[in-house]
Design goal:
Acyl_CoA_acyltransferase, globular, N-acetyltransferase, acyltransferase activity, transferring groups other than amino-acyl groups, 5 helices, 29% helix, alpha+beta, transferase
Length: 151
């Protein structure tokens, strides 16, 4: 009998396997936010992040990572659920696990960027920037494509 409950693991429990990395990179490299990300860049990003993985029957079906100084700030990134597993609360469970991680308690600010999942994150306590004019960014959306052509 199979276990259809989401099992969440993070970097405290076990290292990321090559097969899990292949799923993560394969998915993210096709997204609007990380399209064409080179595998080496993705691996470096994961190595410097707190990573949360969701499994059904031992297969990776969901992922999220947090970039943080572990004292004041966290940036939630790269949250995804494989299409065949969507609509089951897996993203919410994974983000909740990240937010409940003892290493990320007492932070003044959590931040994320999303084009289409505001409702999900609002249900977890996120809200639109109260003073967006105070926030700035330096954004280079074509960096992976440009580096791929030059590399």
């Amino acid at each position: 009998m199979s276990d259809t409950r989401l099992q969440i693991r993070d970097d405290r429990h076990d290292a990321l396997s090559d097969s899990d990395f292949a799923v993560i990179h394969g998915f993210l490299s096709q997204t609007y936010w990380a399209g064409n990300i080179p595998a080496e860049t993705q691996r470096r990003a994961l190595e410097h992040s707190l990573c949360y993985r969701g499994y059904i029957d031992g297969a990776l079906v969901a992922f999220a990572r947090v970039v943080s100084d572990r004292a004041t700030f966290a940036y939630l990134a790269d949250v995804f659920v494989l299409p065949e597993q969507r609509g089951r609360g897996h993203a919410r469970a994974l983000v909740r696990a990240a937010m409940d991680d003892p290493r990320l308690q007492g932070l003044r600010r959590w931040h994320l960027v999303t084009r289409d999942m505001q409702t999900l994150y609002a249900g977890l306590g996120f809200e639109a920037l109260s003073q967006p004019e105070y926030h700035m960014q330096r954004h280079d959306p074509d960096v992976y494509r440009r580096n791929d052509r030059n590399g």
